Protein backbone atom coordinates (compact mmCIF):
# COMPACT_ATOMS: atom_id res chain seq x y z
CA UNK A 1 0.00 0.00 0.00
CA UNK A 2 1.47 3.37 -0.96
CA UNK A 3 1.66 6.46 1.22
CA UNK A 4 -1.07 8.13 -0.85
CA UNK A 5 -3.60 5.42 -0.18
CA UNK A 6 -3.41 5.80 3.61
CA UNK A 7 -6.33 7.73 5.09
CA UNK A 8 -5.04 10.83 6.86
CA UNK A 9 -8.37 12.61 7.46
CA UNK A 10 -9.95 11.22 10.62
CA UNK A 11 -13.52 9.91 10.31
CA UNK A 12 -16.10 11.54 12.60
CA UNK A 13 -16.46 10.27 16.17
CA UNK A 14 -19.81 8.49 16.59
CA UNK A 15 -21.38 8.36 20.03
CA UNK A 16 -22.42 4.79 20.85
CA UNK A 17 -24.97 4.80 23.71
CA UNK A 18 -25.70 1.82 25.93
CA UNK A 19 -28.85 0.55 24.23
CA UNK A 20 -31.20 -1.84 26.02
CA UNK A 21 -32.12 -3.95 23.01
CA UNK A 22 -34.71 -6.72 23.10
CA UNK A 23 -35.07 -9.92 21.14
CA UNK A 24 -32.18 -10.68 18.82
CA UNK A 25 -32.31 -7.36 16.98
CA UNK A 26 -28.89 -6.28 15.76
CA UNK A 27 -27.59 -3.05 17.27
CA UNK A 28 -28.67 -0.23 14.91
CA UNK A 29 -25.66 1.92 15.85
CA UNK A 30 -23.28 -0.92 14.98
CA UNK A 31 -25.15 -1.40 11.70
CA UNK A 32 -24.52 2.26 10.83
CA UNK A 33 -20.86 2.02 11.81
CA UNK A 34 -20.38 -1.05 9.60
CA UNK A 35 -21.89 0.85 6.68
CA UNK A 36 -19.64 3.85 7.25
CA UNK A 37 -16.47 1.85 6.76
CA UNK A 38 -14.25 -0.97 7.97
CA UNK A 39 -12.49 1.31 10.49
CA UNK A 40 -14.46 4.05 12.26
CA UNK A 41 -14.19 6.08 15.48
CA UNK A 42 -16.47 5.71 18.51
CA UNK A 43 -17.16 7.25 21.89
CA UNK A 44 -18.79 5.01 24.49
CA UNK A 45 -20.78 6.16 27.57
CA UNK A 46 -17.89 5.98 30.06
CA UNK A 47 -14.17 6.71 30.17
CA UNK A 48 -12.41 9.43 28.20
CA UNK A 49 -11.81 10.34 24.58
CA UNK A 50 -12.53 8.18 21.55
CA UNK A 51 -11.33 4.85 20.13
CA UNK A 52 -11.05 3.15 16.76
CA UNK A 53 -13.59 0.45 15.93
CA UNK A 54 -12.63 -2.40 13.58
CA UNK A 55 -15.53 -4.40 12.12
CA UNK A 56 -14.40 -6.47 9.10
CA UNK A 57 -13.67 -10.16 9.75
CA UNK A 58 -10.08 -10.24 8.46
CA UNK A 59 -9.20 -6.98 10.21
CA UNK A 60 -10.70 -8.17 13.50
CA UNK A 61 -8.62 -11.35 13.38
CA UNK A 62 -5.50 -9.37 12.52
CA UNK A 63 -5.87 -6.89 15.38
CA UNK A 64 -6.66 -9.55 17.99
CA UNK A 65 -3.68 -11.71 16.95
CA UNK A 66 -1.08 -8.97 16.42
CA UNK A 67 1.44 -8.11 19.14
CA UNK A 68 1.42 -4.49 17.98
CA UNK A 69 -1.93 -4.14 19.76
CA UNK A 70 -1.63 -4.48 23.54
CA UNK A 71 -4.18 -5.20 26.23
CA UNK A 72 -1.64 -4.55 28.98
CA UNK A 73 -1.07 -0.98 27.79
CA UNK A 74 -4.68 -0.15 28.73
CA UNK A 75 -3.57 -0.15 32.38
CA UNK A 76 -3.65 3.32 33.87
CA UNK A 77 -5.71 4.78 31.03
CA UNK A 78 -9.36 5.80 31.13
CA UNK A 79 -10.17 4.56 27.63
CA UNK A 80 -13.72 5.21 26.44
CA UNK A 81 -15.75 2.15 27.44
CA UNK A 82 -19.27 0.79 27.88
CA UNK A 83 -19.21 -0.05 31.60
CA UNK A 84 -18.52 2.41 34.39
CA UNK A 85 -16.69 -0.22 36.46
CA UNK A 86 -14.49 -2.10 33.99
CA UNK A 87 -11.32 -0.55 35.36
CA UNK A 88 -8.30 -2.80 34.66
CA UNK A 89 -6.86 -4.74 37.61
CA UNK A 90 -3.12 -5.29 37.72
CA UNK A 91 -2.24 -8.87 36.79
CA UNK A 92 -5.72 -9.73 35.46
CA UNK A 93 -5.39 -12.15 32.56
CA UNK A 94 -7.66 -10.03 30.38
CA UNK A 95 -5.07 -7.25 30.54
CA UNK A 96 -1.91 -9.30 30.08
CA UNK A 97 0.08 -9.78 26.88
CA UNK A 98 2.24 -12.80 25.98
CA UNK A 99 4.41 -14.23 27.45
CA UNK A 100 2.78 -13.50 30.85
CA UNK A 101 -0.68 -14.13 29.40
CA UNK A 102 0.49 -17.48 27.98
CA UNK A 103 2.08 -18.49 31.29
CA UNK A 104 -1.05 -17.74 33.25
CA UNK A 105 -3.45 -19.51 30.89
CA UNK A 106 -1.18 -22.55 30.81
CA UNK A 107 -1.88 -23.10 34.51
CA UNK A 108 -5.52 -24.03 33.84
CA UNK A 109 -5.28 -25.32 30.27
CA UNK A 110 -5.89 -28.95 31.29
CA UNK A 111 -9.40 -28.12 32.54
CA UNK A 112 -10.43 -26.67 29.17
CA UNK A 113 -9.06 -29.31 26.79
CA UNK A 114 -11.45 -31.70 25.06
CA UNK A 115 -10.63 -34.30 27.72
CA UNK A 116 -11.08 -31.82 30.56
CA UNK A 117 -14.48 -30.70 29.28
CA UNK A 118 -15.64 -34.23 28.41
CA UNK A 119 -15.05 -35.41 31.98
CA UNK A 120 -17.95 -33.13 32.94
CA UNK A 121 -20.39 -34.46 30.34
CA UNK A 122 -22.02 -37.19 32.43
CA UNK A 123 -22.35 -35.14 35.61
CA UNK A 124 -23.60 -32.14 33.61
CA UNK A 125 -26.23 -34.30 31.89
CA UNK A 126 -27.39 -35.63 35.26
CA UNK A 127 -27.69 -32.12 36.71
CA UNK A 128 -29.62 -30.99 33.65
CA UNK A 129 -31.98 -33.99 33.75
CA UNK A 130 -32.77 -33.22 37.39
CA UNK A 131 -33.60 -29.62 36.52
CA UNK A 132 -35.83 -30.69 33.61
CA UNK A 133 -37.55 -33.27 35.85
CA UNK A 134 -38.23 -30.56 38.41
CA UNK A 135 -39.61 -28.18 35.78
CA UNK A 136 -41.90 -30.86 34.35
CA UNK A 137 -43.10 -31.91 37.81
CA UNK A 138 -43.91 -28.30 38.70
CA UNK A 139 -45.83 -27.97 35.43
CA UNK A 140 -46.37 -25.19 32.95
CA UNK A 141 -46.10 -22.30 32.63
CA UNK A 142 -42.51 -21.86 33.76
CA UNK A 143 -39.66 -19.40 33.46
CA UNK A 144 -37.06 -21.27 31.42
CA UNK A 145 -34.34 -18.89 32.60
CA UNK A 146 -35.09 -19.53 36.26
CA UNK A 147 -35.73 -23.27 35.83
CA UNK A 148 -32.90 -24.28 33.45
CA UNK A 149 -30.88 -21.60 31.71
CA UNK A 150 -29.55 -19.96 34.87
CA UNK A 151 -29.00 -22.82 37.36
CA UNK A 152 -27.48 -25.24 34.82
CA UNK A 153 -24.50 -23.14 33.65
CA UNK A 154 -23.92 -22.01 37.24
CA UNK A 155 -23.77 -25.65 38.41
CA UNK A 156 -21.42 -26.63 35.57
CA UNK A 157 -18.97 -23.74 35.92
CA UNK A 158 -18.92 -24.15 39.70
CA UNK A 159 -18.09 -27.84 39.31
CA UNK A 160 -15.34 -27.00 36.83
CA UNK A 161 -13.98 -24.33 39.19
CA UNK A 162 -14.19 -26.58 42.24
CA UNK A 163 -16.75 -24.36 43.98
CA UNK A 164 -18.98 -26.37 46.39
CA UNK A 165 -22.70 -26.53 45.60
CA UNK A 166 -23.51 -24.59 48.77
CA UNK A 167 -21.66 -21.54 47.39
CA UNK A 168 -23.26 -21.46 43.92
CA UNK A 169 -25.88 -18.88 44.87
CA UNK A 170 -23.26 -16.43 46.14
CA UNK A 171 -21.27 -16.87 42.92
CA UNK A 172 -24.38 -16.16 40.86
CA UNK A 173 -25.25 -12.98 42.79
CA UNK A 174 -21.69 -11.65 42.53
CA UNK A 175 -21.56 -12.39 38.81
CA UNK A 176 -24.85 -10.62 38.10
CA UNK A 177 -23.65 -7.50 39.94
CA UNK A 178 -20.30 -7.53 38.14
CA UNK A 179 -21.92 -7.96 34.72
CA UNK A 180 -24.43 -5.14 35.16
CA UNK A 181 -23.82 -1.45 34.66
CA UNK A 182 -27.18 -0.47 36.19
CA UNK A 183 -26.10 -0.74 39.85
CA UNK A 184 -23.14 1.61 39.55
CA UNK A 185 -19.38 1.14 39.74
CA UNK A 186 -19.19 0.85 43.54
CA UNK A 187 -21.63 -2.06 43.77
CA UNK A 188 -19.96 -3.91 40.92
CA UNK A 189 -16.48 -3.34 42.36
CA UNK A 190 -17.63 -4.56 45.80
CA UNK A 191 -19.01 -7.77 44.25
CA UNK A 192 -15.76 -8.30 42.34
CA UNK A 193 -13.74 -7.85 45.55
CA UNK A 194 -15.95 -10.29 47.45
CA UNK A 195 -15.62 -12.92 44.73
CA UNK A 196 -11.87 -12.31 44.71
CA UNK A 197 -11.67 -12.82 48.48
CA UNK A 198 -13.59 -16.10 48.11
CA UNK A 199 -11.20 -17.42 45.48
CA UNK A 200 -8.17 -16.23 47.46
CA UNK A 201 -9.27 -18.53 50.29
CA UNK A 202 -10.26 -21.45 48.02
CA UNK A 203 -7.03 -21.37 45.97
CA UNK A 204 -4.91 -20.93 49.10
CA UNK A 205 -6.46 -24.04 50.60
CA UNK A 206 -5.57 -26.08 47.51
CA UNK A 207 -1.85 -25.34 47.23
CA UNK A 208 -0.16 -28.58 46.26
CA UNK A 209 -3.45 -30.17 45.20
CA UNK A 210 -3.61 -32.86 42.50
CA UNK A 211 -7.28 -32.23 41.66
CA UNK A 212 -8.49 -31.55 38.11
CA UNK A 213 -10.79 -28.61 38.90
CA UNK A 214 -9.62 -25.06 38.15
CA UNK A 215 -9.27 -24.11 41.82
CA UNK A 216 -6.96 -27.07 42.40
CA UNK A 217 -4.95 -26.41 39.24
CA UNK A 218 -4.46 -22.78 40.29
CA UNK A 219 -3.58 -23.80 43.85
CA UNK A 220 -0.96 -26.23 42.53
CA UNK A 221 0.49 -23.60 40.17
CA UNK A 222 0.76 -21.08 43.01
CA UNK A 223 2.38 -23.75 45.17
CA UNK A 224 5.01 -24.31 42.46
CA UNK A 225 5.62 -20.54 42.23
CA UNK A 226 4.58 -20.57 38.56
CA UNK A 227 1.99 -17.84 39.13
CA UNK A 228 1.19 -15.47 41.99
CA UNK A 229 -1.92 -15.73 44.13
CA UNK A 230 -3.08 -12.38 42.72
CA UNK A 231 -2.77 -13.71 39.15
CA UNK A 232 -4.57 -16.92 40.11
CA UNK A 233 -7.47 -15.05 41.71
CA UNK A 234 -7.81 -12.68 38.75
CA UNK A 235 -8.02 -15.63 36.37
CA UNK A 236 -10.51 -17.49 38.58
CA UNK A 237 -12.83 -14.47 38.74
CA UNK A 238 -12.70 -14.05 34.95
CA UNK A 239 -13.45 -17.74 34.31
CA UNK A 240 -16.30 -17.82 36.84
CA UNK A 241 -17.93 -14.75 35.33
CA UNK A 242 -17.47 -16.06 31.79
CA UNK A 243 -19.13 -19.34 32.69
CA UNK A 244 -22.43 -17.60 33.34
CA UNK A 245 -22.46 -15.93 29.92
CA UNK A 246 -23.95 -19.24 28.71
CA UNK A 247 -27.19 -18.29 30.49
CA UNK A 248 -27.76 -15.23 28.31
CA UNK A 249 -26.49 -16.85 25.10
CA UNK A 250 -28.79 -19.83 25.67
CA UNK A 251 -31.69 -17.53 26.45
CA UNK A 252 -31.27 -15.91 23.04
CA UNK A 253 -30.79 -19.32 21.43
CA UNK A 254 -34.09 -20.67 22.76
CA UNK A 255 -35.84 -17.36 22.07
CA UNK A 256 -34.87 -17.85 18.41
CA UNK A 257 -35.96 -21.51 18.34
CA UNK A 258 -39.34 -20.70 19.90
CA UNK A 259 -40.05 -17.69 17.71
CA UNK A 260 -38.93 -19.54 14.56
CA UNK A 261 -40.52 -22.97 15.03
CA UNK A 262 -39.33 -24.24 11.63
CA UNK A 263 -35.75 -24.05 12.92
CA UNK A 264 -36.68 -26.00 16.06
CA UNK A 265 -38.45 -28.61 13.94
CA UNK A 266 -35.31 -29.05 11.82
CA UNK A 267 -33.38 -29.92 14.97
CA UNK A 268 -36.04 -32.31 16.23
CA UNK A 269 -36.24 -34.17 12.92
CA UNK A 270 -32.49 -34.34 12.36
CA UNK A 271 -30.56 -34.45 15.68
CA UNK A 272 -27.29 -35.05 13.83
CA UNK A 273 -27.18 -31.41 12.67
CA UNK A 274 -27.50 -29.97 16.18
CA UNK A 275 -23.77 -29.28 16.81
CA UNK A 276 -23.49 -27.49 13.46
CA UNK A 277 -26.75 -25.64 14.10
CA UNK A 278 -25.52 -24.46 17.50
CA UNK A 279 -22.41 -23.00 15.86
CA UNK A 280 -24.63 -21.12 13.42
CA UNK A 281 -26.78 -19.79 16.27
CA UNK A 282 -23.63 -18.73 18.12
CA UNK A 283 -22.55 -16.83 15.00
CA UNK A 284 -25.91 -15.11 14.64
CA UNK A 285 -26.75 -14.26 18.26
CA UNK A 286 -25.85 -10.71 19.37
CA UNK A 287 -24.23 -12.09 22.51
CA UNK A 288 -23.09 -8.83 24.06
CA UNK A 289 -23.86 -5.13 24.16
CA UNK A 290 -21.56 -2.79 22.21
CA UNK A 291 -17.94 -4.00 22.52
CA UNK A 292 -15.72 -5.67 25.12
CA UNK A 293 -12.16 -4.74 26.09
CA UNK A 294 -9.93 -2.38 24.14
CA UNK A 295 -6.32 -2.59 22.99
CA UNK A 296 -3.65 0.07 22.55
CA UNK A 297 -1.58 0.40 19.37
CA UNK A 298 2.08 0.09 20.35
CA UNK A 299 3.30 1.52 17.06
CA UNK A 300 1.82 3.05 13.93
CA UNK A 301 -0.28 0.44 12.11
CA UNK A 302 -2.26 0.60 8.86
CA UNK A 303 -5.61 -1.21 9.06
CA UNK A 304 -7.63 -1.39 5.87
CA UNK A 305 -6.10 1.81 4.57
CA UNK A 306 -6.56 3.72 7.83
CA UNK A 307 -3.53 4.90 9.78
CA UNK A 308 -3.78 4.07 13.48
CA UNK A 309 -1.23 6.02 15.49
CA UNK A 310 0.91 4.75 18.35
CA UNK A 311 -1.04 5.10 21.60
CA UNK A 312 -4.50 5.01 19.98
CA UNK A 313 -7.16 2.85 21.62
CA UNK A 314 -8.71 0.19 19.35
CA UNK A 315 -11.81 -1.96 19.73
CA UNK A 316 -12.89 -4.88 17.57
CA UNK A 317 -16.48 -6.03 17.10
CA UNK A 318 -16.88 -9.80 16.95
CA UNK A 319 -20.59 -9.27 16.30
CA UNK A 320 -19.81 -7.27 13.18
CA UNK A 321 -17.14 -9.76 12.05
CA UNK A 322 -19.73 -12.55 12.31
CA UNK A 323 -21.95 -10.62 9.86
CA UNK A 324 -19.20 -9.89 7.30
CA UNK A 325 -20.81 -10.82 3.94
CA UNK A 326 -17.39 -11.56 2.41
CA UNK A 327 -17.02 -14.46 4.86
CA UNK A 328 -20.64 -15.38 5.64
CA UNK A 329 -22.92 -15.20 2.56
CA UNK A 330 -26.40 -13.93 3.49
CA UNK A 331 -25.20 -13.16 7.03
CA UNK A 332 -28.66 -12.07 8.22
CA UNK A 333 -30.03 -15.55 7.51
CA UNK A 334 -29.74 -18.45 9.96
CA UNK A 335 -28.50 -21.36 7.86
CA UNK A 336 -27.92 -24.63 9.71
CA UNK A 337 -26.10 -26.02 6.67
CA UNK A 338 -23.54 -23.19 6.68
CA UNK A 339 -20.13 -24.74 6.09
CA UNK A 340 -17.50 -23.64 6.78
CA UNK A 341 -18.56 -21.44 9.66
CA UNK A 342 -15.42 -19.79 11.08
CA UNK A 343 -17.29 -17.48 13.45
CA UNK A 344 -15.42 -15.53 16.12
CA UNK A 345 -18.07 -15.63 18.85
CA UNK A 346 -15.45 -16.86 21.31
CA UNK A 347 -12.87 -14.34 20.16
CA UNK A 348 -9.60 -14.90 18.35
CA UNK A 349 -5.88 -14.84 19.07
CA UNK A 350 -4.26 -15.14 22.49
CA UNK A 351 -7.39 -13.93 24.28
CA UNK A 352 -9.66 -16.53 22.65
CA UNK A 353 -12.23 -17.59 25.27
CA UNK A 354 -10.88 -20.72 27.04
CA UNK A 355 -14.43 -21.85 27.79
CA UNK A 356 -15.54 -22.19 24.16
CA UNK A 357 -15.71 -25.99 24.22
CA UNK A 358 -17.49 -25.95 27.57
CA UNK A 359 -20.09 -23.49 26.27
CA UNK A 360 -20.71 -25.70 23.24
CA UNK A 361 -21.11 -28.77 25.46
CA UNK A 362 -23.65 -27.01 27.67
CA UNK A 363 -25.58 -25.68 24.66
CA UNK A 364 -25.72 -29.10 23.04
CA UNK A 365 -26.93 -30.75 26.26
CA UNK A 366 -29.66 -28.13 26.76
CA UNK A 367 -30.85 -28.33 23.15
CA UNK A 368 -30.95 -32.15 23.37
CA UNK A 369 -32.79 -32.20 26.68
CA UNK A 370 -35.38 -29.53 25.95
CA UNK A 371 -36.18 -30.46 22.34
CA UNK A 372 -36.39 -34.19 23.09
CA UNK A 373 -37.98 -34.19 26.53
CA UNK A 374 -40.29 -31.17 26.12
CA UNK A 375 -41.44 -31.44 22.47
CA UNK A 376 -44.27 -28.91 22.90
CA UNK A 377 -42.02 -26.23 24.37
CA UNK A 378 -43.13 -22.75 23.27
CA UNK A 379 -43.33 -19.19 24.53
CA UNK A 380 -46.12 -18.52 27.00
CA UNK A 381 -46.29 -14.84 26.00
CA UNK A 382 -45.97 -12.94 22.72
CA UNK A 383 -42.28 -12.46 21.74
CA UNK A 384 -42.44 -8.71 22.35
CA UNK A 385 -43.43 -9.36 25.98
CA UNK A 386 -40.28 -11.35 26.79
CA UNK A 387 -38.27 -9.07 29.13
CA UNK A 388 -34.61 -8.60 28.25
CA UNK A 389 -31.94 -7.53 30.73
CA UNK A 390 -31.30 -3.80 31.07
CA UNK A 391 -27.86 -2.41 31.72
CA UNK A 392 -26.27 -5.80 31.04
CA UNK A 393 -22.89 -6.16 29.35
CA UNK A 394 -23.85 -9.66 28.17
CA UNK A 395 -27.19 -9.48 26.38
CA UNK A 396 -30.04 -11.89 27.04
CA UNK A 397 -33.59 -12.35 28.35
CA UNK A 398 -34.20 -11.65 32.02
CA UNK A 399 -36.97 -14.24 31.95
CA UNK A 400 -38.21 -16.64 29.29
CA UNK A 401 -41.87 -17.56 30.04
CA UNK A 402 -42.67 -20.93 28.43
CA UNK A 403 -45.39 -23.52 28.31
CA UNK A 404 -45.75 -26.97 26.74
Structure description:
There is one protein chain. This protein has 404 residues and is an alpha+beta fold. The chain is 44% helix and 8% strand. It has 16 helices and eleven strands. The chain has a six-stranded mixed β-sheet with strand order 1-2-3-9-6-4, with helices on both faces. The chain has a three-stranded antiparallel β-sheet with strand order 5-11-10. Strand 1 (13-15), helix 1 (28-36) and strand 2 form a beta-alpha-beta unit. Helix 14 (274-284) crosses helix 16 (356-373). The longest helix has 21 residues, at 185-205. It starts with 12 loop residues before the first strand and ends with a strand.
Q: For the largest beta sheet, what order do the strands appear in spatially?
A: 1-2-3-9-6-4
Can you write the helix and strand succession as a string?
EHEEHEHHHEHHHHHHHHHEEEEHHEE
Question: Which spans of ≥5 residues are poorly predicted at pLDDT below 50?
Answer: 1-5
In DSSP terms, counting alpha (H) and pi (I) runs of 4 or more, how many helices?
A: 16
What is the gyration radius calculated from CA atoms?
A: 21 Å
Main sheet makeup:
6 strands, mixed
Shape: globular
Roughly what is the average pLDDT, rounded to an integer?
92
The overall strand count is: 11
Q: How much strand?
A: 5-15%
- In terms of structural class, how would the helical and strand content be classed? alpha+beta
**How widely separated are the two ends?**
59 Å
What is the share of helical residues? 40-55%
Amino acid sequence: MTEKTITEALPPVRHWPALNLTGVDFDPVLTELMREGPVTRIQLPNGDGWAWLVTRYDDVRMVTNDSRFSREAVMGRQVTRLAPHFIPSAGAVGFLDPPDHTRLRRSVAAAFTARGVERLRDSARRMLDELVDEMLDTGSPADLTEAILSPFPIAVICELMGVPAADRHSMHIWTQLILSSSHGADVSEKAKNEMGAYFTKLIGERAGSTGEDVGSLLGAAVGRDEITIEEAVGLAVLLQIGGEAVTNNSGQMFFILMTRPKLAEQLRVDPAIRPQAIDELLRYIPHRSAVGLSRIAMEEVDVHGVRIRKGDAVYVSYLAANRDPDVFPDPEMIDFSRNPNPHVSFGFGPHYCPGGMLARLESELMVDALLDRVPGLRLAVPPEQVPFRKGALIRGPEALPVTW
